[in-house]
Automatic annotation (TrEMBL), chains A, B:
Subunit structure, interactors included: Homodimer. Component of the cleavage factor Im (CFIm) complex.
Record family assignment: Belongs to the Nudix hydrolase family. CPSF5 subfamily.
GO terms assigned for molecular function: mRNA binding
GO biological process, one term: mRNA 3'-end processing
Predominant location category: nucleus
CDD domains associated with the record: NUDIX_Cfim25_Nudt21
Name by which UniProt lists this protein: Pre-mRNA cleavage factor Im 25 kDa subunit
Subcellular location: Nucleus
């Protein structure tokens, strides 16, 4: 639809963005040594965030939206921790690190054979959306809350996968392909950020490539 | 945030998109003759949609996201019908009409002094998202549902407002400025499409311009 737009191409180009996705069977999945998590509990995490904040100020998180095809429907790749929490692959930036460098580092750390692998292999594309929150609160907003002086930000990036690759995942994490239709508005299971991903992708034409 | 990205500028540009918004007080609001609605009831509407479908096939709807500033927070302009239903300004395309031409026509029809006014005055920008549905069902999906052969599509476009203009609204409609924070995830009051707008805007840096 809308392919008959001829005027004003600079503004309609955006509406025609495409993403090619490949069958899940094109990818190889293996495991590697477990990742050591820094915090045992939520309160440990908050303590660590506070001390990091004191040392470095606010840090941005970057997360990746990775898609594959299964049963003719786009599926989102999610990491699952302890058979419960779902996360998009990603994490916090180091002080001074760019969004793209940080996301590549995190993706290699969590999804590649070697942490020091070829990070350029990750094709980090456009920012799809951002979520903001008060310093140490859990409530997320898709806009900068009016009363917040020092917000924390999570940015989502579209990462286009090649037609084949290996995913090597720490053995204490599971990498799952979940249908967009299951994720959409399913806040309870997937949380605010993940359950909103189908909407952020809605302007893209998703092409299923048969191999 | 993210302003320190220097590599790979083609893919980070998208993450830096900006929207300038102006105070509500910069705009003039007036009224004009009521719009005649084609349907009295939902069942009238479905009957009309079916007969249109038989005559023209499926038609795309286009809707505008228009922002103003009030109390230092971005507000979304919504039309309200009968003190109840909220709608983004827009409507269905005519057969063969482009997204941009159709949206400009609808915006002039609902928000300008004259229907035949200068439609180019509306700066229709990028597509923010799309919603799909089965032919005559009301359930909306932000992805093409796998089983649907002939989906209907609603496309949302960002329309940047100039620093001043007149809005002349049919007297049976109200034009309201609603804070993004009130719209966000408020499905009950605003419906699926409108309540998702803050998330679709989240990748933009919204600049409040003081006049």
């Amino acid at each position: 639809m809308g392919d008959d737009d001829e005027h004003n191409s600079s503004s309609t180009d955006e509406g025609r963005k495409e993403v090619d996705i490949y069958p899940l069977s094109c990818y190889y999945f293996g495991s590697k040594e477990a990742i050591v998590f820094k915090d045992e509990t939520v309160s440990d995490r908050i303590t660590r965030m506070k001390s990091n904040y004191a040392a470095y100020g606010l840090r941005t998180s970057v997360e990746a939206v990775l898609l594959v095809e299964l049963f003719k429907h786009p599926h989102l790749l999610l990491l699952q921790l302890n058979n419960s929490i779902f996360k998009l692959p990603g994490g916090r930036l180091r002080p001074g690190e760019t969004d793209i460098d940080g996301l590549r580092r995190k993706l290699s750390n969590k999804l590649s054979a070697s942490r020091d692998g070829n990070e350029a292999e990750w094709e980090v594309g456009e920012c799809l959306g951002m979520w903001w929150r008060h310093d140490f609160e859990t409530l997320l907003c898709p806009y900068l809350p009016p009363t917040v002086k020092k917000p924390k930000c999570t940015k989502l990036f579209l990462v286009r996968l090649p037609e084949s690759r290996k995913f090597i995942v720490p053995e204490n994490l599971k990498l799952l392909a979940v249908p967009l239709s299951q994720v959409h508005e399913n806040h309870k299971t997937y949380g605010t950020v993940i359950s909103g991903v189908p909407q952020l992708l809605s302007k893209y034409s998703i092409n299923i490539i048969d191999i």
